[in-house]
Amino acid sequence: MIGGNIMKAVKKSATPAKERTPKLAKSETKSLGKSETKGLKAADTKKLGISATRAKKIKHSYKVKDKENAILLKLKDGDVVIEMFPDDAPNHVARIKELVRAGFYNGLKFHRVIDGFMAQTGCPYGTGTGGSGKKLKAEFNKRPHKRGTVSMARSMMPDSADSQFFICFGDCDWLNGQYTVWGEVTSGMEYVDNIKKGDGPNGAVSAPDEIISMQIIADI
Hints:
Elements: H1 4-13, H2 52-61, E1 70-75, E2 78-84, H3 90-101, E3 112-114, E4 118-121, E5 149-152, E6 165-168, E7 181-187, H4 189-193, E8 213-216
Antiparallel strand pairs: 1-2, 1-8, 2-7, 3-4, 4-6, 5-6, 5-7
């Protein structure tokens, strides 16, 4: 739980709604084009250097409700499991899965990290100004923003979410109903806590931590 002073400070000065995300021309965005998610061959995806036997053990070691709707997020300190909510945000979950399977998130930076609030990533430029080139219509739902919540970042426009998302370090009730919650960390939150925090304006991070890889657990 975030303390009162931190909550007030964060609520006033650090909210994804204030994220500066200028509209980019098509030539400035990193576009994936049409994605063939399940049709991707092994050679077309970024895989970890592990044996088939080890991969099988890893796959079955995660106790998730649905492996097709669960993500393995590898950070510098350990593995994080995110279970997605396809019933609450079907279009966002489908798009996240496309991006994950295309290897889009591998190596991207946590460019904005505010202690006690959230860690944001998903910009291909590492600045918070870019995305995959496909905007998503908001799917605001009743899921609360609490510790471990995974939600979409956006500009002031409700339907401007693209590829950037954030993971909440603590309860952020003032965000409820204004951002699309699409998942929740169910394992490895202690590794999320260790993501390097920002000390620059609006949580900007110098020499930020990166996503080592993201995989759909069903694909491991």
